[in-house]
Amino acid sequence: MFLPLLFRKKTLGLLLLLVCSFLLIDAVNRDVFKTCEQSSFCRRCRKVEPGKTPYQLLTDTLVQNESSISIDLFNKDTRVLYILQLTTLKDNTFRLHINEKNPLHRRYEPEHALQDQPQVSKLNLIEKTTDHITIISDENKVILYANPFRVDLYSQNVLVVSANARGLMRFEHHRTKPKTPEQEENAENVEVNVNDNPPGDGADDDPGAWEEIFKTHHDSKPFGPEAVALDFSFPGAEHAYGVPEHADSFALKSTKQAQPYRLYNLDVFEYEVNERMSIYGAIPVLYAHGKERTTGIFWHNAAETWIDILSSADNNVVESIVNFVSGSTKKSQVDAHFMSEAGVIDVFFMLGPKPLDVFKQYTILTGTAPLPQMFALGYHQSRWNYNDQDDVIQTAENFDTHDIPLDVMWLDIEYTDSKKYFTWDGRRFPNPIEMIHNLTAKGRKLVVIIDPHIKRDPGYFIHNDATKLGYYVKTRDGKDYEGWCWPGSSSYLDFFDPAVREYYMSQYNLDKFHGTTNDVYIWNDMNEPSVFNGPEVTMPKDVIHYGGWEHRSIHNINGLLMSIATYEALFRRSGGSLRPFTLVRSFFAGSQRYTAMWTGDNTADWDHLRISYPMCLSLAVSGMSFCGADVAGFFKNPDSELFIRWNQAGAWLPFYRQHSHIETKRREPWLFNEETTQIVRDAFRMRYSYLPLWYTLFREHEVNGTPVVRPLWAHYPSETETYAIDDEILLGDSILVRPVFQPSVTDVNVYFPGEGKITWYDVDTLQPYHQPGLVNIPVTLHKIPVFQRGGSIVPRKMRIRRSTVAMKNDPYTLIVTTDSAGKANGTLYIDDEASFEYRHGKYLYLRLNFDGNKLTSTFIDKLSSYQTESWLERVDIANPPKGVKSAILNSRSMTKVNLETKYNPNNNVLTVRKPSVNMGEEWSIELIH
Amino acid sequence: MNNLTLFLLSANLLILLGHVAGSKVLQIRGIPIAKSSLYPSDRDFQCLDGSLIVPFSHVNDNYCDCADGSDEPGTPACTNGSFYCENSGHKPRYIPSTWVNDGVCDCCDTSDEYSSGKECPNNCNELGKEARLEQQKAEELIREGNKIRMEMIAKGKQLKTDYQARLVKLRAEYEEAELVKKEKELLKTQAEERESAALEKYKQAEPEQSTAEEGEEEEELRESDAEDYFKLLDSDNSGTVTIAELQTRVTFDKDRDGAVSEEEALFFLNDQKEVDLQEFVNSAWTNVKPFLMLEQGMFKPADQREEGEDEEEEEAQEPMEERSEQEKGEDDGAEGEDRADDEQKKTEESQVQYDEETQTLIDEATVARENFQTAEKSVNELLTEIRKFEEKLDRDFGVDNEFAPLDGECFEYTNLEYIYTLCMFSKTTQRSKSGGSDIILGHWNDWNGPDGQKYSRMKYDNGLSCWNGPARSTVVNLSCGRENKLVSVTEPSRCEYAMEFSTPAVCNLSQDSANTHDEL
């Protein structure tokens, strides 16, 4: 949803002017948001000169524990002491923590991003000199250099990442506010003191150190300068990735001549593509990838953060450091410089070495997404707004009329009574329960929106409770903070207060939130939080949260706190039996444990369609697999071609929802023309037929942390051509998707990874493609190129029903595409698709293996079991062995059964007809020649 | 054949014989009996598209063999198939195969859910009864409506004839009026010649008239208008106009949201809370005037440009809603110019004392002028009338002119927030219940029903433009009803309205019974 500028203009005349310029430019208003230069801490951190670090370790102070060491760190320019702590963690991970030794004030450290206390592993101190300290843990080694201070991390004796190698570290200690000139005049012996003083860190000279003004907004900054920053060099890496959320390419660009990447959750009206501006979410994890290995760092800090990137392309600077760090002259290198406004330095090093290892290491720290209910992977139909309950019912019914599957109908803010969440507009929705039953009769669900701003209305119970109980975020002088949002004057529940979360969760009880049932799920929007009249459309940094923390310190994690509460509320609502589903716009590291996200208010143009892929890729490797973009663009109206292409692309991203602005035309799939309806129906059917694969991948993500969608280099790490590809994704490791992102094209270039060792099969025809690298593939309006990897087995359901619930008991079809040795394998996960019973062993996890002549299904988890009604309907084997005449099925319940086979010489596919074996038992199918 | 195959075969037969209703006919599940011959059980089955031949045991064996889905009419195996429910007691029906055994009761005879475990009630009899009643009612409605429709047709025909007759008469009158006009014009010219000859001698005495006067006069007019309007606005006679006083007038509801906000009021008062007469005339009037003119239908885009306010689109397009009146006004103005000059001359002249003879000539000329004006006016009026009737005769009032009696009729519908009006063949409007002026939702454009049902839908478009959006438009769906009534109004998309209008004019007995037969 968008921010109406309308609210913020004082006179109509001004509004008219603005509208004018709006119509002309039609783009994001950059003036509303800060550049690095306009933010005093970013300015200060960015101008630190490389190679002159004032920090040095006092190695004498070393204290060694079972799995950590701590040492004092000294800044010779300020004479401030810090404590450095290095902890060795399991899974090739290290944690570096630096804070002031004698702090004037405490500093905020995020509480909810990590899923648990990270598990430690044993640390061995093998060397300690005045110059350096060396520790080892498993195959990894860390050398801490004392002066100049630097930390080098080695994986298998190769230097993979170095902190402060460029000497850009900055840790602004808390200090007392300097006296004003008048006060100084009154003080005695001023001049003598000046001579004695160390040079300092220069922060006091910055006019923005103790207060800042941006536009009309004043930031009081009572704690003065308190930024933290550190640089990281990754020798051998060719590209950096991560630090979502930005509407930019997947591979990060050099910021040498540009603005740094910014992480500060903001409601950016009509955001543009190929921008480093911050938008709704922030995950400060960064990966550096090269031919040999992948390394990651997780910057555990919830304050505003800017990140500078230097890539191999920035020759001059980089080469000198490469020489400095590794002594080699040819190696590529990536450098990153993290700068945060507040908090401490707390960084996790994840040493891989393979891409999937690093992704997993990150999810070991921050968690994985719990397996969603199957319906959440189906199709979602949303609009701001479906006008009334008849509109909702009629729209859902039209999906049946047009034979298009639908799982969820959505209601945006207009369903409420005057934007008072947890209420209904009784005129438009006189009987929501009846409406919900209408949906659930076809196996469908409802999602309604709940935003974090509370209408300041004396007739609104939540406002009255929150006022009375002190549940709102406070201004500096202790009053309830007031901002402007959808309902007009609003205040904001302080989700940092456990009592507030408890209160908020209780609102979801079915006896409290009338008009809802267990089939109603929740959408949290505007939780950056969006404040229409606030600085950069959010809260002032000096408002106060529970525990006395300034908003400055916690801003980026605000959205996560709301997600925690909403998830927990839905969990409790069903007595812990049903898996919650929530969608959120603003998120932080760890949000994946609670919620799906979408890329916010995009626009119906080809650029925004294109950017949805790199955005979701970036999120997927950053733990947040459950990602999607509004199909076919929130603002403006797509034409039928864009609508088709967006559905074809959107059907291959994890979260598949159509959503649009209140001022757009209706765009349900049948509203364009017959051809469009038909093509879009096919895209939907494609999505639903692959749901067994999606579901299996989500389960494997939950268990292993593997992203559901992946960049090509996740599986082909040494193919340098893949590093910059982000218009193509892998679904798991078996499906390659390359949507059409341009109008009126008759062909697209597809990159086939595998260096010729892998055959890729067109999923529509099972036609094989052997040629590696870029290949020109013809497309029609009906087709986007999608391929299955030779050597894989993909489970599908070919009977497309009204909703996923209706498909639960349907039989499976297995698509076997053989590799050059004639073999293939895959997995399939099956459970009840809705409850938490799977956590008590009620599931099936099957290994599917084809050895060239025999296809088998065996239990991977022998102890689990689940009674399924689903059976095996059909097996298609591409590039099968020659001369097959029939097949024999072997299973315990059916013993031996002869099966018909049919060979299609046109596409070289052998079909095994109707094995009929239940998926709940192990079986084999042998081909008979 | 081994035991297992026998077992499978009998299992297949169980599925096949879904409907053995006492008779010995082998019925295939999912197709009507009439089509059973396409599925002969004594030979292999050929897919209905001819693409493949499969053993008969593959029919309805819950595996899709045929590309066209024809081997599985009774199972959900083929996504592109359809399933026939007999629905004995009610209407038979085809449903998509994917609805078979999906846990949703779709066929009232329960036949679609034979192995999903879903317990469906057989309610065909009840539904059938209801449907027949509905059908009866509908037929009755159509019969009754059709009667009225016939009346409307008769009336429509009569109207057309009347229009034609009227037109003939008007044209004749017009011819006559033209003659009169010409005659009066001649008389006028002669009288004026005599008059001007007589006036020659007074000419030197008259002062020169400044040609620049007219421009100034407009300025004066403006100021006096401003004063008048100020007094009107100053409802409490306090000597100042306040925000509150502006808020009572919809003229100032710029964004047409039904209320004059403080911001809107401030705009008109140049950001002051109140203004006195002097300030009002000097500054506020500039802001107020265009809207006032707009409201009074005096707005001319050119004026707006002269004001130097290059305002955005909404502003520029707002006058569109008043276009018809405005055009009329312009026409009148153009034709009346001479008259105005004459009148002006007359007032000036009357200030001078003339001798009796001259005065008589002047009076005669004045009478001649007046007579000419009357004649001219009558010609113009007749022309307007003729155009009106020509338009009416040209308009498509349906195949049998059944919609002609509705021409110009207006119908209202009120919901929670708005009052909507449908003026047939003219326009659609919306007005907030809390006050405010009419917002045009569309002007009559044309019929736009689908092929073969052209007269089932009307289109009104080119209404008031939305902020940052399209011009409002309305689609009116017509359905058979005993009376002409606006049944509902919705806004499915922003600024696109849908009206449901019931009218006997579409209760077409012959057409509808044909449709019903098709369904059966």
UniProtKB/TrEMBL annotation, chain A:
<keyword id="KW-0326">Glycosidase</keyword>
<dbReference type="GO" id="GO:0005975">
    <property type="term" value="P:carbohydrate metabolic process"/>
</dbReference>
<dbReference type="GO" id="GO:0006491">
    <property type="term" value="P:N-glycan processing"/>
</dbReference>
<feature type="domain" description="Glycoside hydrolase family 31 TIM barrel">
    <location>
        <begin position="370"/>
        <end position="697"/>
    </location>
</feature>
<comment type="pathway">
    <text>Glycan metabolism; N-glycan metabolism.</text>
</comment>
<dbReference type="GO" id="GO:0090599">
    <property type="term" value="F:alpha-glucosidase activity"/>
</dbReference>
<dbReference type="InterPro" id="IPR011013">
    <property type="entry name" value="Gal_mutarotase_sf_dom"/>
</dbReference>
<feature type="region of interest" description="Disordered">
    <location>
        <begin position="176"/>
        <end position="207"/>
    </location>
</feature>
<keyword id="KW-0325">Glycoprotein</keyword>
<dbReference type="Pfam" id="PF13802">
    <property type="entry name" value="Gal_mutarotas_2"/>
</dbReference>
<dbReference type="InterPro" id="IPR048395">
    <property type="entry name" value="Glyco_hydro_31_C"/>
</dbReference>
<dbReference type="GO" id="GO:0030246">
    <property type="term" value="F:carbohydrate binding"/>
</dbReference>
<dbReference type="InterPro" id="IPR017853">
    <property type="entry name" value="GH"/>
</dbReference>
<keyword id="KW-0378">Hydrolase</keyword>
<dbReference type="Pfam" id="PF21365">
    <property type="entry name" value="Glyco_hydro_31_3rd"/>
</dbReference>
<protein>
    <recommendedName>
        <fullName>Glucosidase II subunit alpha</fullName>
    </recommendedName>
</protein>
<feature type="domain" description="Glycosyl hydrolase family 31 C-terminal">
    <location>
        <begin position="705"/>
        <end position="794"/>
    </location>
</feature>
<dbReference type="Pfam" id="PF01055">
    <property type="entry name" value="Glyco_hydro_31_2nd"/>
</dbReference>
<dbReference type="InterPro" id="IPR013780">
    <property type="entry name" value="Glyco_hydro_b"/>
</dbReference>
<feature type="compositionally biased region" description="Low complexity">
    <location>
        <begin position="189"/>
        <end position="201"/>
    </location>
</feature>
<keyword id="KW-0256">Endoplasmic reticulum</keyword>
<dbReference type="GO" id="GO:0005783">
    <property type="term" value="C:endoplasmic reticulum"/>
</dbReference>
Automatic annotation (TrEMBL), chain B:
<feature type="domain" description="EF-hand">
    <location>
        <begin position="221"/>
        <end position="256"/>
    </location>
</feature>
<feature type="compositionally biased region" description="Basic and acidic residues">
    <location>
        <begin position="197"/>
        <end position="206"/>
    </location>
</feature>
<feature type="domain" description="MRH">
    <location>
        <begin position="408"/>
        <end position="509"/>
    </location>
</feature>
<dbReference type="InterPro" id="IPR009011">
    <property type="entry name" value="Man6P_isomerase_rcpt-bd_dom_sf"/>
</dbReference>
<keyword id="KW-0106">Calcium</keyword>
<keyword id="KW-0732">Signal</keyword>
<dbReference type="Pfam" id="PF13015">
    <property type="entry name" value="PRKCSH_1"/>
</dbReference>
<dbReference type="GO" id="GO:0005509">
    <property type="term" value="F:calcium ion binding"/>
</dbReference>
<dbReference type="GO" id="GO:0017177">
    <property type="term" value="C:glucosidase II complex"/>
</dbReference>
<dbReference type="InterPro" id="IPR011992">
    <property type="entry name" value="EF-hand-dom_pair"/>
</dbReference>
<feature type="compositionally biased region" description="Acidic residues">
    <location>
        <begin position="211"/>
        <end position="225"/>
    </location>
</feature>
<feature type="region of interest" description="Disordered">
    <location>
        <begin position="301"/>
        <end position="358"/>
    </location>
</feature>
<dbReference type="InterPro" id="IPR039794">
    <property type="entry name" value="Gtb1-like"/>
</dbReference>
<dbReference type="InterPro" id="IPR036055">
    <property type="entry name" value="LDL_receptor-like_sf"/>
</dbReference>
<feature type="compositionally biased region" description="Acidic residues">
    <location>
        <begin position="328"/>
        <end position="341"/>
    </location>
</feature>
<dbReference type="InterPro" id="IPR036607">
    <property type="entry name" value="PRKCSH"/>
</dbReference>
<keyword id="KW-1015">Disulfide bond</keyword>
<dbReference type="GO" id="GO:0006491">
    <property type="term" value="P:N-glycan processing"/>
</dbReference>
<dbReference type="Pfam" id="PF12999">
    <property type="entry name" value="PRKCSH-like"/>
</dbReference>
<feature type="coiled-coil region">
    <location>
        <begin position="124"/>
        <end position="194"/>
    </location>
</feature>
<feature type="signal peptide">
    <location>
        <begin position="1"/>
        <end position="22"/>
    </location>
</feature>
<keyword id="KW-0175">Coiled coil</keyword>
